[in-house]
Amino acid sequence: MIVEVIETKNKQETLKVKLEDRELFIHSSYNPEREAQHILKKELTQDFNSDTHVVFLGLGLGYHVSQFTKQYQQNSYSIIEPSLEIFNVASDLIQLEEVFNKNVAHLFVGEMYSVRQIVDQIYKESATRVEIVISPTYKQLFSKLINEFVSESKKMIRQKRSELATNYNFQFNWIENSIKNHKHVLNTPNILDDSFKERFSDKPVIIVSAGPSLSDDIESIRSIKQNNLAYIFSVGSAINTLITYDVIPDAVFSYDPGDKNHLVFEKMIDQDKDAIPLVYGSSVGHQLLENFRGPKYHFITSQDYTSRLLLGDQIGKNELVLDSPSIAVMTFQIVNKLGMSPIIFAGQNLGYLYNRRYAQGVDYDFIDSELTEQEVDHAEEVKDVYGNNIKTNIGFNSMRNALVQFASTFKGEYYNTTKGGAAIEGIPFKTIEDLLNDNLQQSIDKKIWPINKKSYDLSDYDKKKEDIQLSYESFVEEKARLEYTLNKIKEETGKKKLEKLFTKIDNELTKFENNQFFTHFIVQSIRVEHDLLIQKINRVAKKETTDKKKEIIQMFRGYNASLTTVLVKLVLVLQEEGILNNGNAKTERNLV
Predict the structure, then answer these.
(1) Cβ proximity of 209 and 328 under 8 Å
(2) pTM for this one?
(3) What one-character DSSP code corresponds to residue 521?
(4) Residues whose CB falls within 8 Å of the CB of residue 31, separated by 6 or more in sequence, listed in order
(5) Could you give the angle at the alpha carbon of 572 between the alpha carbons of 570 and 578, nearest 5°?
(6) Where in this chain does the record put each 6-hydroxymethylpterin diphosphokinase MptE-like domain (predicted)?
(7) What is the pLDDT of residue 329?
(8) C-beta neighbour count of 413 within 10 angstroms
(9) What separation in angstroms does the CA of 377 have from each of 54, 150, 157, 372?
């Protein structure tokens, strides 16, 4: 590529790019500035506002970027210039202060980063809407890169929306469940204790999921169970298929924090099958533990801030199970930490088969097992274990990616028996029939699981509760001071005094962040609102004092309402569970 500077008809400058088969102008050869205005008008959507982050795909001589920085002085933006040759020429000609101001977040030049890395950086740091402005000539010069960038951006947007929805829907459930389940955690064994590692190490295990292919493997799973060739661990809804076919697993695993999760085990409980051990995540829906009569074993999830605070160092890195998109992924972590091998997946479709979401035997009132036409029409495509395209969705894809990540981290011996399921990198496909012939030929000794063993030293437990009580009382006082400062900001008009009050707000938020009760309970219960607040504060910090006042009042009004609501609910739950004291007059006054 040869880049040449050309004078335009109106005495401005443009760039001519010479390729082997053609020549292209990067900007208009007549009036680049007018063209820049047209580009912005065409590319920015009706939803564009002062919070929108703009990605300029193609810098050239920066006419459109310069126009943007003059017209939209509050917006953040990033620049991607795919050509190092164009950037080198442009950097000698453009007015840098007009193109790169305080709001520029990223500059990517040439091929230093992959498209995926660029997308990750831009969308990871941007909590606002993102719009892409593409210079017309770049659509011709770099069509492959642009198509890949747009495709990866759409995937990232869907992923962020899914994560945001999950966090918003479950943020209070995680904390409420971890508080209500804590008494069960103290009185049941941790499945990752050393005694369990000795019991399960080097033993084969089948993680049985509820995908439509499970029915194809069910008779082989029955044979494996009858002959003690491997442990059978049922995850999520698979227990209903197993019970339908009268195959009793060695344990059932559950972690879903939703208030309907216990309904998954209704059939098992109603048929008096709850002698099967239940291995539960400590932030699982508390209704399950209240209804389940059989032996229970727990694992501490990364969403359980109650146990992490009250048990402290007793929950080491190896005992913490990272919250994941599915119970199959959580169980995969657990069996790897237990040293089980080989680890085999059955019914792990991660895609659609037979137009069903679940295997036969799985039917609920609150979710259809059969797919709707809309779900099929909006599905994505991935490769299955045979190399064919199958339809899937963002949730299944997220599960598959998580399995790929943990398979790469643990590097054990893994197999996927799911006929017609999505291919999982690092977990090769092998039919269950071949596994029976090649890998599962010796019976194993399945020792009885201990029931009454407790896993934690509670010698300083009361002291930990006292610390939480003191931290809570301190937080209520800090919250009152924050509200007082906000009221002063509403009344104040002087610029210097307002700036001092803004500094005071920052200091009071820092005290929040250093408060144990706030970081382990409050912020985890309103994490979506809290993240948005911090991102807005960082954006508002760049504004003028008068504009800043209005926005600070507005954003703290909503945030403080969410904080107050969740504080009242949390205190009631913590008092019911005996973690906070009842009837503290000093703190109750400040809650209203």
Answers:
(1) yes
(2) 0.79
(3) I
(4) 8, 9, 10, 12
(5) 100
(6) 177-353
(7) 97
(8) 12
(9) 31, 21, 19, 9
Residues 6+ apart with CB under 8 A from 216: 419
Q: Any idea what DSSP says for residue 356?
A: B
Give the SS3 label for residue 84. Answer: helix
What is the per-residue DSSP string for 171-208?
HHHHHHHHHHTHHHHHTS-BTTSHHHHHHHTT--EEEE
Tokens 């064919």 found at = 388
pLDDT for residue 162: 75
Written as six digits, the tokens of 230 are 């491997």
* 2-159, CATH topology level: Rossmann fold (3.40.50)
Q: How confident is the model at residue 171 (pLDDT cuts 50, 70, 90)?
A: confident
Per-residue burial over 315-342, b if 16 or more Cβ lie within 10 Å, else e, is beeebbbebbbbbbbbbbbbbbbbebbb
Alpha-carbon distance of 36 to 148, in angstroms, equals 24
Torsion of CA 290, 200, 398, 349, to 10 degrees: -100
Q: Percentage helix, strand, coil, to 5, in the chain?
A: 50, 15, 35
What are the tens digits of pLDDT across the range 174-219? 999 999 999 999 999 999 998 899 899 999 999 999 998 998 999 9
Q: At what angle do helices 143-180 and 394-410 cross, to 10 degrees?
A: 80
Residue with tokens 């642009």: 146
| Closest to 443 measured CA to CA, from 186, 225, 132, 197 | 225
Q: Are 107 and 30 in contact (CB under 8 A)?
A: no
Domain range summary for the chain, segments of one domain joined by + = 2-159, 187-438, 461-591
Per-residue model confidence as pLDDT tens digits over 30-66? 999 999 999 999 999 888 887 789 999 999 999 999 9
Radius of gyration for the chain, computed over Cα atoms and rounded to the nearest angstrom:
29
